[in-house]
Specification:
about 375 residues, Gyrase A, domain 2, Elongation Factor Tu (Ef-tu), domain 3, 20 strands, about 30% strand
Length: about 375
């Protein structure tokens, strides 16, 4: 027998348990998948009011030193040089083959850069960027274990948080960040999100996370688990590592070419591979689809087109907001157009599906 892997926990683990959350292993962490309210109620709370997610398991790396901006421009695919202090951007870190090491968010401050990565890829990405450092005059610090993170999302978020915030939340634009206090806790606040709804990310000291959570929930935010987080991001068609993106998929195939600046003048890993792929054209593309028959498309279900097995369901489920079964998959490039019909094999039965426009849910409150 082998010893069970010991799961890591966030500062809120006892709070989650006390609230009756169903705890599950996720990316090496013990995390709440849902509370007694249930996934549907949590999902709808974010769509109509305000929910709060514990995402303190995410990885955060800090980059300081004179070469920090140039170094991060070489390490990531988007253009860090286009960011001003107080701005952030969605980006990626690629292998030399042009496939995803991870997707990430890059924050620019006056005197540093912070990069936020997926919990499952934290160790891998850290090793990767350390190897990229070379002779760059930068200091790299993994600050993940010192950083707590709450995502507060929903159309009522600003109204609920403003009374407990010392910073004018309305002044934080989309993909912007600013420092202040929320619920008496020092933190910096960004406005981007992963649900399609307006909201904020609250970064604080690890030891202050519980106090911040209590202040936010007391203000009216409903605790939300990973189950609803997944259904919310699927309705938006947002990528999740291990699903729509992984180490065998390029940004051009995943429809994320907009986060890759091929001509920014910085030779990031995978640049040559992506230029070559763009020139010859991709052979497959990520699409969103809806099932036309009865069934629920689950991750891993086979996908068939023109009688051939072409891929698998990357993400799928019943959309709580739309009331229909939806999912994502890769199709041959020539077939990856809206209205194309194919089949998803659900429990041994091939069910018709149709390519539809993403996002599936287009009535969110997120600022643009």
């Amino acid at each position: 027998m082998t010893d069970a892997i010991e799961l890591r926990t966030t500062p809120l683990v006892e709070i989650h348990r006390a609230r009756g959350a169903k705890m599950v292993p996720f990316a090496g962490w013990e995390m709440p998948v849902q509370y007694p309210t249930g996934i549907i109620a949590e999902h709808q709370a974010v769509r109509t009011s305000c929910g709060v997610f514990d995402v303190s398991h995410m990885g955060e790396f800090e980059v300081t030193g004179p070469d920090r901006n140039a170094f991060m421009n070489r390490a990531t695919t988007n253009d860090v040089g286009a960011l001003g202090s107080g701005q952030l951007q969605y980006s990626s870190i690629l292998s030399k083959e042009g496939t995803f090491v991870d997707d990430c968010t890059v924050y620019r401050f006056d005197d540093k850069i912070m990069i936020v990565v997926n919990a499952s890829n934290r160790a891998k990405v850290w090793e990767y960027i350390v190897d990229l450092k070379g002779g760059a005059n930068v200091r790299l610090r993994d600050i993940s274990d010192a950083t707590g993170l709450l995502a507060v999302q929903g159309p009522r978020t600003e109204a609920l948080l403003q009374p407990i915030a010392t910073i004018g939340l309305g002044g934080i634009g989309y993909y912007r960040h600013a420092a202040g206090r929320v619920g008496g806790v020092d933190c910096f606040v960004s406005r981007n999100g992963y649900t399609g709804e307006d909201g904020f990310e609250l970064y604080c000291r690890w030891r202050d996370t519980a106090a911040l959570w209590e202040a936010v929930t007391k203000a009216g935010a409903l605790p939300v688990g990973l189950g609803a987080r997944d259904s919310l991001r699927l309705e938006m068609g947002f990528a999740l590592y291990g699903h729509e993106i992984d180490d065998a998929i390029t940004p051009l195939e995943a429809g994320l070419g907009w986060i890759v600046k091929l001509d920014k003048g910085a030779p990031f890993p995978g640049l040559g591979a992506l230029r070559a792929q763009k020139e010859r054209g991709v052979t497959r593309k990520l699409v969103g689809f809806k099932l036309l028959g009865r069934g629920i498309p689950r991750q891993g279900y086979p996908v068939w087109s023109a009688g051939k097995h072409v891929d698998q369901v990357r993400s799928g489920g019943q959309s709580p907001s739309l009331g229909i079964p939806i999912g994502t998959t890769f199709l041959p490039a020539a077939q990856a157009t809206i209205g194309t019909r194919f089949e998803v094999e659900c429990r041994g039965e091939r069910i018709p599906a149709e390519v539809v426009k993403r996002p599936f849910w287009d009535r969110g409150s997120a600022r643009k």
